[in-house]
Task: structure prediction
Amino acid sequence: MVQDYEALVKRISEASGVGEEEIDRRVEAKRAKLSGLISKEGAAQIVATELGISFDKQTVKINQILPGMRRISLTAKIIELSQIREYQKNNRSGKVLNMVIADETGNARCVLWDTNHISLFEGGQIVKGDTVEISNASLRNSEIHLTAFSDIKKSNSLMEEVKTEIVLLEKKVLELKIADRAKVRAVIVQIFEPRFFEVCLDCGSRARQGLEGGFECEKHGSISSDKVSKRAIVNTVLDDGTETIRAVFFSDHAEKLGLSKDASDFSEKRETIIGKEAYFSGSVRQNKMFGNSEFIINGVEEVDLDRLIEKLEKKG
Ligand SMILES: [Zn+2]
Result:
């Protein structure tokens, strides 16, 4: 989700009548007071609250949604729709539906928990590609959640031009939270011996060593060893000066570190990878075994110095 700081300051200024420069000054003061522990956007939200501005109950664009917002109303197009999942919790069963919605400013994951809402999808009244009007939703972990208090209905308006590419927020490692999709500029300070696993060549599913020498595909059952391909998982530690985080590279992304897909050249390449600085993008999840956060990498971009200088000059 984009949180365009300048757009936010503009909105607070318009709603409060306080000049944009003054709001920017208050945001910096707030951050200084909190030793820089909050983002500019977060500080701007506190400043807005102090100015008596509530963004609740307003129709917003996706790039205007902020952490902690409740009663979000928006119109957006469904660009991805997952299958409905059933779950059991405390002897009760429920359903959950995940989708990605987009408008002209950005896109966001959206989670539906109410069976009445989900039945609209089961009955085909709402399908992928439809434009929907959502009201009373709330933001949790960077996702828009709809509960029984929320509402969703098919909109009569059509949205053609929507932003479908996932927009990643650039963050400091210190600011990363579970479920964030973000981009950090950091240095690889540690890299560990790769771990390996096999996948079925036909379907890409995990294949485990069978009892009699062959392999077992989760989908295909027994398969011979020439039907599997070896994949690697490379664990690293990223550091950007604010904090460190374990970053996990699966095969295809390990290639972006300069390794071969099966990481067979790990020992020769190891030295050249340590110290590598880049923009790493991915999602943050909790490691189930150890409970710590891990950054699952799905993109590596070289640091383009010219572009960086240009950006810094613009800011100055
Ligand atoms: Zn298979």
